[in-house]
UniProtKB/TrEMBL annotation:
GO terms for cellular component: plasma membrane. This is ABC transporter ATP-binding protein. GO terms for molecular function: ATP binding; ATP hydrolysis activity; transmembrane transporter activity. CDD domains: ABC_MJ0796_LolCDE_FtsE (cd03255). It holds the Pfam family ABC_tran. The keyword Aminoacyl-tRNA synthetase does not apply. SUPFAM superfamilies: P-loop containing nucleoside triphosphate hydrolases (SSF52540).
Length: 232
């Protein structure tokens, strides 16, 4: 008889803990995100949302716990294997975009593909087009506004079609119209490509589009109720 495989969440975080000195910023966080769903995460400033994303992405080291990504226990793997899986499976939109100043806009967007040994100029242009920057491919980051840099960062996070997207306030620097356009691009990745999106946001509009809404507090993650505070 054929045995059905239980479906595994794309991202499964178990008992994730982060201490800075004597202080627990994350005191055992547990949650899962399925492929094809968007989860919005909110919470007071300083509660640890960026720390949580950074620990999932391996930019910060967790003090305890495990991050299962596509069934792989990331924190238990040797560093080179962790790095390879992250390059393949993760797209990260940082709060401070981290666009590299010595690369053109197009080369910044192409970076994740390059690190995977792929050259897909048409895909790079399609992503630049999707974020409204097709005419800035040859520009230098110093010639762009903050909102434009944010859009470069979003195109770069999506270009290699990662199954997991982590976005830290991706619409924070954008006017409402551009913010809507950027959310459309992120959602397209979720709905059409089946990616999972973990979106840290204070924006009520952005959170309203998510499949699930969570709040990170000192006691861990809980579901947001309709009256949960949001700024826009
Ligand atoms: N390298 C560090 N050393 C010590 N404490 C740190 C470090 N990085 C972050 N923290 C502390 O960890 C806590 C969580 O910070 P984090 O940036 O994750 O919060 P956040 O919820 O993302 O806040 P915001 O909404 O303002 O971006 C803060 O109190 C911060 O001061």
């Amino acid at each position: 008889m054929m045995r059905m495989q239980p479906t595994r969440p794309l991202l499964h975080v178990v008992g994730l803990r982060k201490r800075y000195g004597e202080r627990d910023v994350l005191a055992g966080v547990d949650f899962s995100v399925e492929a094809g769903e968007c989860v919005a995460l909110t919470g007071e400033s300083g509660v640890g949302k960026s720390t949580l994303l950074n620990c999932i992405a391996g930019l910060d080291s967790a003090s305890a716990g495990e991050v299962w990504l596509g069934g792989e226990p990331m924190l238990r793997l040797p560093e080179p294997q962790q790095a390879r899986l992250r390059r393949e499976r993760l797209g990260f939109v940082f709060q401070a975009f981290h666009v590299l100043p010595h690369l053109s806009v197009a080369d910044n967007v192409a970076l994740p593909l390059m690190l995977l040994g792929r050259s897909e100029p048409a895909r790079v242009m399609a992503m630049l087009d999707a974020v409204g920057l097709a005419d800035r491919a040859g520009s230098w980051p110093a010639e762009l506004s903050g909102g434009q840099l944010q859009r470069v960062a979003i195109a770069r996070a999506l270009v290699h079609r990662p199954p997991l997207l982590l976005a830290d306030e991706p619409t924070g620097n954008l006017d409402p119209e551009t913010a809507t356009r950027i959310l459309d691009v992120l959602w397209q990745q979720v709905r059409q490509e089946g990616a999972a999106l973990l979106l840290v946001t204070h924006s009520r509009t952005a959170a309203a589009r998510a499949d699930r809404r969570w709040i990170l507090g000192a006691e861990g993650i809980r579901a947001a109720t309709d009256g949960a505070p949001h700024a826009d």
